[in-house]
Amino acid sequence: MSTRPIISALRQDAQVLDADGSIDRIVRHIGDASIVLLGEATHGTHEFYRIRAEIIKRLISEKGFDAIAVEADWPDALRASRFIQASPTATETTADSALGGFERFPQWMWRNTDIVELLSWLRMHNMQCADEQDKVGFFGLDLYSLRGSMDAVVRYLSQVDAEAARRARSRYACFDHLADDPQRYGYAASFGMRKDCEDEVIRQLVEMTTDAQRLIEASDHGSEDELFFAQQNARVAQNAEAYYRAMFQGRNESWNLRDRHMAETLEALRGHIIEKKGRRPKLVVWAHNSHLGDARATEMGEHGQLNLGQLVREHYGEKESFLLGFTTHTGTVTAASDWDAPAETKTVRPSHPDSYERIFHDAELARFIVPLRDNPRLHDLFVEQRLERAIGVVYLPESERVSHYFHASLSRQFDAVIHIDETRAVRPLERAVDHHDGEVPETYPSGM
Q1: Distances (CA, A) of 375 to 27, 162, 370
Q2: What whole-number distance in Å separates Cα of residue 82 and Cα of residue 76?
Q3: Cα dihedral across residues 137, 76, 107, 338: positive or negative
């Protein structure tokens, strides 16, 4: 199809955002959805962080949302959550220090000025809540924290049951020193160079689930929250063990395991809030477009991959969920040139001529909302598959077509999309960020 009628329809039906990214219309499109998934086309764009933060503030203050679940590890996000809730167990007094758990690559995803501002707002909001039950939490959905989650389980059990803590240490000792380098563990276990630890992590999670009531009674404070947090760490350890073994069995298997873990964590969080508040929870999810746009509408899905957005739609239906994507045409981005490499400010190449992003650019509207669910004409015009860009923590402009584009049907992938034509890099808290023109050789696949 020619792009001319699509561009004409965009100019008539797209909803222009003002310079401040006013999100009144976005909130109206979200309506009564109780699970709102906010995406991003890159892991390092300031405007994506800022607009999503403004949406979150409105959903919390106007619609009573309960928690934010993000593409981050459970122990690191929990440290930030204790800070914003002014929890008695919190040890940090500033948003910057509350993000101190994010020590590993890519630090800038969470240790940046936009997240500091959001956490500061969340803490202020929570301190104004008359009822502790109304305080908003900040939780991680990811599974990379094998060592950190195991240590957290043992710390919790040491406070409530010394013998249970001893059993946990014994089970987790199966990993020996390889828990600090889980990819080495996965390689060795996958190729028969050592025994895997699958049974041990499963036994630990089963024990903490079946002994839940006893552990609560043994706690000085009888805290159901602390037990839930520890159980989630045990679940992370179980799924992380499986993930690192799956890394050497094919990309689809490890990707699907990771996104199923995110969905499982989201459902566990919903269940915990239901038990506490006795009502339907409302949750905001914050992750990359590739995790939150329905995979069934993409090249990924055709190749056997699923994702969190698909699982949420399948489980909760379109009435309860709202999937919002973000795109950009050009600008700058914070990203690395290889995994574990330093953060750089890179130039984002102008979008591919055959991409959705180029159609948005040609509409000449600067920043706008594309309402796909609520506008039948736009929905139909964006059903046809086109290229869509995905920049993760690694950005390789020189091989961009191969490394960072995939085919998708936008109107089946998202309920709405926000396009910001020119964007700028997110600003990390750490100042050691290299400035780069973005022209680098391909050395590693993009990381989402």
Answers
A1: 16, 59, 9
A2: 10
A3: negative
The string of pLDDT tens digits covering residues 111-132 is 999 999 999 999 999 999 999 8
What letter does residue 132 receive in the DSSP assignment?
A: G
pLDDT 10s digits, 352-405: 999 999 999 999 999 999 999 999 999 999 999 999 999 999 999 999 999 999
Q: How far apart are CA 392 and CA 375, in angstroms?
A: 30
What are the DSSP calls for 147-211, one per residue?
HHHHHHHHHHHHHH-HHHHHHHHHHHGGGGGGGGSHHHHHHHHHTTSS---HHHHHHHHHHHHHT
Q: How far apart are CA 299 and CA 385, in angstroms?
A: 9
Q: 372, 406, 394: which is closest to 441 by C-alpha? A: 394
Q: Identify the pLDDT of residue 434.
A: 58
Q: How many CB atoms lie within 10 A of CB 212?
A: 15
How far, in whole angstroms, is CA 81 from its chain's centroid? Answer: 15
Phi-psi region at 64: left, alpha or beta (left = phi > 0; alpha = psi -120 to 50): left
Question: Domains of the chain: which residue ranges?
Answer: 1-43+50-65+283-448, 69-137, 143-281
Q: Do residues 423 and 348 touch, judged by C-beta distance below 8 A?
A: yes
Two tokens at 339?
């995994």
Peptide bond into 353 cis (omega under 30): no
Cβ atoms < 10 Å from Cβ of 20 = 9
How many CA atoms within 13 Å lie on the side-chain side of 415?
24
pLDDT band at residue 441 using 50, 70 and 90 as cut-offs: very low
Nearest to 417 by CA among 358, 370, 359, 353: 370
Report phi then psi at 138, rounded to 5. Answer: -135, 110
**CB atoms near residue 347 (< 10 Å):** 18
Residue type, 356: Y
Record the tokens describing residue 167, joined without a space. Answer: 């059993």
Say what the pLDDT of residue 19 is: 67
C-alpha–C-alpha distance, residues 420 and 324, integer Å: 13
Q: Is 445 exposed, middle or buried (0-12, 13-18, 19+ CB in 10 A)?
A: middle
CATH of domain 1-43+50-65+283-448: 3.40.1660.10
Residue 78: count of CB within 10 angstroms of its CB: 23
Mode of pairing for the β-strands spanning 15-16 and 367-371 = antiparallel
- The mean per-residue pLDDT over the stretch 432-436 comes to 54
What the block records as the tokens of 267 is: 């459902």
